[in-house]
Amino acid sequence: MGMHTDLLKELLLEAAPSGHEARATQRWRAEAQTFADQVSQDSYGNVYAELNPPPVGTPGSTAPSRPIALMAHLDEIGLMVTHVADDGIISFAGIGWWDPQVLVGQRVRLLAEGGDIIGVVGKVAIHLMNEADKLRASTLAGLWIDTTLIPEDARRRLPTGTVGVLEQPPLEQDGHLIARALDNRAGAFIVLEVLRELKARRVTRHVVAVATVEEELGFFGAQVSGYRLNPAAAIVVDGLHDTGQPGVGDSRYGRVRFGSGANLAVGSRLDARLLGQLKRAADEHGIPYSLSARPERSDTDADGLALARAGIPTALVSLPLRNVHTPSEMVRLSDVQACIDLLVAWVCALPEGAPPVPDLELWPSEEPGEERSHADPGERS
After folding, report:
1. pLDDT tens, 223-235?
2. Cα separation of 40 and 63, whole Å?
3. DSSP class of residue 136?
4. What average pLDDT does the segment 203-212 reach?
5. pTM of the full predicted structure?
6. pLDDT tens-digit profile of 84-141?
7. Domains in the chain, CATH or no CATH each
8. Nearest by Cα to 229 from 67, 53, 28
9. What angle do CA 151, 152, 153 make, to 5 degrees?
10. Distance from CA of residue 148 to its chain's centroid?
């Protein structure tokens, strides 16, 4: 199967900091509507693209089965205006986890009413620093945003609360893609492409691809969508640091490198049965993969999703990623394809009519007054 890389680039061009994801969700939703059986959005901002949604409201029908969810977040780290001074210089705060060093000198797209405004992150020039200042790391408090607007227009058009992102268009080169927001616009692209391929293969299961919001602030979109869907099983797709980079190292997670394909996480909150299924699917189809150790938490939507409702069996598939949370994140496109291939193979390998986690008994919805059997549902892993 071939990737629609133009769609990924279009998603990367959209400015969508956490809590303000509308531009990216609209593009993702528009693409989903070209092939999904049903597309919807909840009040929190998560977008859902479904295959084979069960009929609802039919007299005499039983409660719908719990779907399989494929989930990835669309939001990115960003900036928020806190104050515009009388001279037009803009103070700002970060949205999400920033290293201030990467902001110096960067262009910023501010989502202003009446049209976006491009600004520049400023810092005192090194020529004007004393020797002690030269050795100090940059802080957000020591940076500002400058624009070409006159002060009156800056105060009017960029009020407190205006958000922005770094202005850095995507670049494809030598089988790699370089851009801001690959964490995790690439994951949202992957789950949508998986759904597209499942549609082409006429898969009959109820599968939902979810583009979540506010992951960078604490997995909030995943918690909301997990509660809404209550899926029988879920796979979260996100990025993971390529351990070949200086300062990372294989001892941190295991060997995770560009060209190694999809990464499968092993962790306390992650379901070992789903991990086993993913490994078997990869082995049977010759799909490259690596393993990563997440002993306590994964720091992804998987952490929130696994604890939604009464607990959702969740696995994590990660894309090797370099330069995380910078304007020049990088992925290898062959690894993106491996993630797509693996998730398609996993869904297609699930036996028809059986729950995705076969040794877990999934209780049906109960009518009032109905007694529940107390058979042992089995061990979690």
Report:
1. 999 999 999 999 9
2. 20
3. S
4. 96
5. 0.90
6. 999 999 999 999 999 999 999 999 999 998 999 999 999 877 787 788 877 888 889 9
7. 5-76+180-349 (3.40.630.10), 78-166 (2.40.30.40)
8. 67
9. 90
10. 34
Q: Which of 307, 324, 309, 96 is nearest to 218 (CA)?
A: 96
Cα–Cα distance, 305 to 229 (Å, whole number)? 11
- Position 359, amino acid: D
Task: List strand residue ranges (DSSP E) for 167-313, in order.
Answer: 171-173, 176-179, 207-212, 233-241, 262-267, 289-294
Instruction: Retrieve residue 370's tokens.
Output: 């109905």
**How many residues in the chain?**
381
Query: Looking up tokens 């007694």, which residue turns up?
Result: 371
Q: For residue 264, give the nearest of 316, 338, 187 by alpha carbon.
A: 316
Are the beta carbons of 7 and 74 closer than 8 angstroms?
A: no
Q: Are 166 and 107 in contact (CB under 8 A)?
A: yes
Give pLDDT, residue 4. Answer: 76
Nearest residue to 24 (alpha-carbon basis) of 178, 171, 181: 181
- The answer to whether 214 and 222 are in contact (CB under 8 A) is no
**Maximal C-alpha separation, the chain:** 79
DSSP 8-state code for residue 247: T
Helix axes 5-13, 182-200, angle to 10 degrees: 140
